[in-house]
Amino acid sequence: MPILGVNIGRVGFLATASPDNLEEALGAVARGEYDLEKRRSLECVIEGSEKAKHPNTVALNDVVVSKGPLGRMLQLEVIANGEPFCTYRADGLIIDDHGNLWVAANQADEIVVVNAKGKAIAKLGDFDGVSGGLPVHMLFPASLRFHGKDLLVTNLALNTHLFGFVTVDTDWSAQVSRYTVVKIRARIREADED
Question: CA–CA distance from 43 to each of 37, 58, 60, 78, 108 (Å)?
Answer without folding.
Answer: 19, 4, 9, 10, 28
